[in-house]
Amino acid sequence: MKAYTSNNVIKKQFSLVVVKFAVCFLLLGLAYRLFLSNFEQFSQIEVNDIALVSDNTLPPPVTVSEPPVTVDLPKNQTLQNGTCDLFIGDWIRDPSGPVYTNTTCDTIEFHQNCMKNGRPDTEYLYWRWNPRDCELPRFSPKKFLNLMRNKSFAFIGDSIMRNHVQSLLCILSQEEQGDAVYHDKQYKSRRWYFPNHNFTLSVIWSPFLAKATVFEDDNGVSTDITKLYLDKLDDVWTRQFDSFDYVVIAGGKWYLKSTIYYENNTIVGCYYCPDKNITQVGFEYAYRKALNSTMKFITSSKNKALTFFRTTTPDHFENGEWNTGGYCNRTGPFKEGEVDIGYVDEVMRKIELEEFERASELGLNMKLFDTTLLSLLRPDGHPGVYRQYQPFARESLIGSSPLTSGLSCFAEWSFERGQLYNMNCCIGLYFCGCKA
């Protein structure tokens, strides 16, 4: 495997696109299936196809023909309960149509609303995940809420978790609308309550899981380098952990930001800080240490919440980075053997699997949510240029440039309370208001 320098990695921090809204519904369904393994099987619900309204006159995104490269997917394995490995399989056509769209769910934000913004193709709506040796039933919001009666469910992490929750809210609203009962100052940590089921759903913003001081404003503009305390977990989530019955937790791509590392309140190194007189340390060290501490905390907690650890989410750029002509305009899924996992994603997933295995030997009360490879196969779930309204109309007005070309895959629109701010290129999550 080729060497990967800090400069190369930091360039990729802007191009590592995370799980798409199209995949969020699948991930929720997989989690649902995992913690329902001891319950009776449930039947599929009937969903009518929803007519899509499009006001665009733009051509479809270019379908890129690339020679396939090989990826070695894990061999099919049987879980301890005798069922198949839910994370090994293929994306297959699903003519039943989307469970929800931008017209039926109000938690889809402007930059996520690819349909309203003019995306002309709709094929990405008609796929579902098919495990290799078993059937994954369609998610039932009614049955889910009944099982969650008098329970609490939390998603802990970065913007990926926020999108998981947004997707779940879209689905559950078909049965009961959740009431927003809490938000922090920046609207990053939020909570909803479903009174008919006495069910609480939370998203907790903790992108490092460890304690961090981040000098970013609401627009994502940094005034100083991030400070990360590797020997201290973020009490934003640890002080609430005992109140949850179910948890989905993950680290992620924030570890690719420029960061100074502290232990015992002393600087022990940094990641990509060329203007600092500090020893350079790879992000691998920090990520492994934070995950180790996180899993030890969960293992030792008196609250035995059923916890899912979600693995890293993949990059979908092709032929370059976000600012060098890279694009993500595929209109259909990959098949097994047609795409390779990126180096950084491979390294992060390896660390995750190793730390999970180490913690499992200590009696970790956690299930592995290994969605990296199945997510890798869905490049079409990214909104691409359609995070902007009628992007080609805008381009025709201002002219084509390297900037607008780069924005086709990774411009971040910052939001707070629904207010659109300026554009920033930084780690974030984008998805097209669609189903898996």
UniProtKB/TrEMBL annotation:
Which parts of the sequence belong to the Trichome birefringence-like N-terminal domain? 83-135
Residue ranges annotated for the Trichome birefringence-like C-terminal domain, each copy included: 136-393
Taxonomic superkingdom: Eukaryota
Q: Please give the InterPro entries that the UniProt record associates with this protein.
A: TBL (IPR029962), TBL_C (IPR026057), TBL_N (IPR025846)
User: What's the source species for this entry?
Assistant: Anisodus acutangulus
Task: List the subcellular locations.
Answer: Membrane
Q: Which family does it belong to?
A: Belongs to the PC-esterase family. TBL subfamily.
Q: Name one GO molecular function term.
A: O-acetyltransferase activity
> What GO cellular-component annotations does this UniProt entry give?
Golgi apparatus; membrane
* First-listed, main subcellular location of the protein, grouped into a coarse class: membrane
> What kind of membrane protein is this, topologically?
Single-pass membrane protein
Q: Name one Pfam family in it.
A: PC-Esterase
Per UniProt, which keywords does this protein have?
Answer: Membrane, Signal-anchor, Transmembrane, Transmembrane helix
Q: What protein name does the entry list?
A: Trichome birefringence-like N-terminal domain-containing protein
